[in-house]
Amino acid sequence: MAAAMADLRSNRNVVFTTENGWLIATSEADYTIWSFSPKGYAAYPAVVKRQVISRAVGSKIEMSVLCEASKRACDDLVRTFAAMNGLHLSQ
Hints:
Elements: H1 2-9, E1 14-19, E2 22-27, E3 32-36, E4 46-54, E5 59-67, H2 71-84
Antiparallel strand pairs: 1-2, 2-3, 3-4, 4-5
């Protein structure tokens, strides 16, 4: 995760903000948002990358997750972000 953060920090197109304790890195040029979990969050340390991908008709959101917490906490994190993306995953 440290390498990903260093790479993002070196990219001038990435803007960092903090929302509810989460560090959010946004690249409008790449239509990408990285969300880094805060300390104290059940799935800490974790980062979720979401990118909007254009398709012939419409677009889709691709999501990647790097989570070093317990499987249960990581699974909950994935479900939470999937729901934000409009997806509903079974438990």
